Amino acid sequence: MLFTLKEEKMRKVLAMMLAAVLALSLLTACTGSTEPAKTDDKTETTTKATEADTEKAETEKAETEGQKEDTTAEASEPADVPVIKVSYPCLVVTPSPDAVVDVEKTINERLDTLGAGVHMQLEAIDGMNYATQVDMEQIGGEKVDLYMALGNLSDMVASNKVTDISDYRDVLKPVTDITGDTFLDATQFDGKLYGVPCYKGSVLTYYWVVPTEIAEDDLGLKVGDRVTVEDITGYLATMHEKYPDKIAMGVRPGANGSANQFCLSAIFAGPRNYSVTGLLSAGVGASTIGIVGDDLTVVDLYDTDYFKKVCETAYEWNQAGYVNKDASVATEEGYDLMKADRCLSYLIGYGGCDPKITDADTDTTHGRSVMMIPVDQNLNMPTGLDWCVSYGCENPEAAVKALTYFYTDPIVMNTLLYGVEGRDWVNTGFNDDPLDPIIQRPEGLDAMTVPYNAQFTCGIMGNEFIDWVVADEKGEYEDLRAAHLEFMQSAPNSPVFGFSFNTANVKNQIAAISNVEAKYMGGLLTGEMNPDEYIPQLVAELEQAGIKDVIDECQTQLDAWAKENK
User: Fold this and answer.
1) Which pTM value belongs to this model?
2) How large is the average pLDDT for residues 518-529?
3) Domain architecture of the chain: domains with CATH
């Protein structure tokens, strides 16, 4: 697929999702039925009928027309076809309910053609508000069928918010035929299946993003060069000296309280000494517990030299004036600051590996040409982006059936991402395969102005490797899907790949830990807090909150998992 810079916004989804806004008009519009056909009035052909005969004829006519209307309605939406509500987050732009209606209709027509026996009701939710909105709908007893667990599946299992779908593994076979049998391992708890991960580039490459003219002219970098964290520190000093009025490194803590510099945690460790931070994904900031390297001993990651080094680097950058002031409460992303010509670089990580220079005319994310400079390669980790069936779903089997089409059918998948042909996108004709066209936005429109666009949600939906390639207005495009798939499949797996921590027995401790994290993470990871002073306070308060209980519980589960998977 074409990995545009705009799509990188989507790849930071785990730091963006906290609350939700309900699109009420969408709920009423997405009923899956159509208006019944209207019949023409007929002219009375006899003038000799008595008043009673006329009355009888009109009655028979009304009954006949009613039967026609009923037949039309039944043909448009068979009563026995279950309608599954799909609540999905939209990043950067959220399409209007009116635009969603036509997308829903197109998808359902495709499902009928495939003989799916299921329809979809689409609920597009602003990504910034997604998690809370779905939670509110569940609590309020509203219809919730399929929705995305954004790195928080263990909490949802512990809170009984998701349904065990183990009985529908056979329904998921078309998916696992594509992904492989181990694909579902990371969404199992105590042998039960609770979700279906996104099939996407789960190997993160971290990039330092710098305006091309600065990277080339001031720093002497060229596309494809790699840098270390130490290199970046030196380059920031150069940039700060030459452009003192600009922010050298743009950061913000994000809605989850974790700064962009937390990318540094993986960058420091590298692929062979990687510290896994994905065992417990319930914290406000980065995951609290993990393992270091290949040692399966669970530790408090905040009480390691590894984490201290991350915070020391952030503190060094902050004290030297390289980062934006008040970064811990900032609301603008690095790319927003760069587009406003206020910052000169930022860090980002996303799936696949694509070092490049963007085109100034088409890079609307930055408003200029930027160089994507790889920092280091991560291990193959579970994405944490898992589709789940809500505990309130009345037909879980139909929900699982509907979900499979996001992994197996490119028409369903890409209609949800790109909208309706002719209105939201056009076929360039560059590829003869009707299931895999190269598309463009209609003339005069772009991703921000078409009526419907969920393109930036591409890494959150089903099978990223069947996403269509999008050409720019010049007709230029790059298809990296095969390369990214090979990159993912050839990467070494994390030593705990496939392990899922069931937090049900330590819910109270996790809640207390989250409160502690909220106090410290933004300040530590933006360098506003001195790590020598505040990390000991963080560690002490985590101990009081019960982190030892969490570590012990996770260790017990991890040991059992490792024994079974030797």
Assistant:
1) 0.65
2) 87
3) 1-32+78-201+383-493 (3.40.190.10), 203-382+496-564 (3.40.190.10)
